[in-house]
Write a structure and sequence with these properties.
17% of the residues lie in helices and 39% in strands. With 298 residues, the chain is of the alpha+beta class. The two termini are 36 Å apart.
Length: 298
Amino acid sequence: MFGQTIGELNSNKKVAKFLEKEINKKYTFKEVFDKEVEADDEDFEYFVKKTDLDNNGFTDLVVNAYVPLIIVLNNGDKDFKELNFRNTKFFSDNEPELDSIAEIGNEKVLIFETEIQEFDDEEYPNIKIKKNQEALSYNSKTKESEWTIRDVKYKVDSLTVKFGELVEYKNIKPKVNRIKELYFSTTGCFGSCPIFDIKLDSERNLEYNGKKFTNHSGLKSFRLNQTDYDNVIGLIEYAELKKLKSFYSVNWTDDQTGILKVIYENGEVKEIQDYGLQGTINLKAIYKKLFEINKNVK
């Protein structure tokens, strides 16, 4: 059974076995599908979606069950990668829920809805209101949460897969501004956040400085492989940094700051400081790639 491809998985139990073996040992059937689920095949199509999310010719896996959404990209030759979507800027945000997978042109678009608090709605551009929903509300008089019927607000995110990461779907092709150099640095936090500097130029030359909580301490220079370079630069170009704010911040303390500076071939410079590293979905995709580079420097 373990020789099966994603496309051949046809039951919840087989999906859980695949996830436990190929992705993470914690993904047991009980963990993914909940111990209360007795019916297997009956609910399979509800919980499991199989489609080619990134148009690379291989079937990817989306499991929308009882743990936070699991997305597995299939790069062929048993090369699998798990993607996670957490668009949380505030402690009050709930987990995003997958509403549907749409096909727009030749792209697969994942539509997420996340319930938000009344006072957070100005922070998000796309809001959906569901009328007369049963939902928990805080009673200021009793100082307890209780079930009530009320209108519930959701933020809506439309995501697609680009350069191996989840990014915001755009219905127009982003304008490309060629990049000459990029710099990325992180500060410390109340904990063991990795502190490092990266400088990367258009010839793929990378200068690295691991300062604290990194696999490599000190300076190291090398040429970044073509795939990692293309993915990082592709994500930065797709994000259209010049349209973004120069400063982002979460509303909690003791986190780290990331500073991303990009110098374009036309001489323009864009710098973004991001306390908490949660600025936008596309920025988080960039940070993820840069943190992967940091982790791989030995």
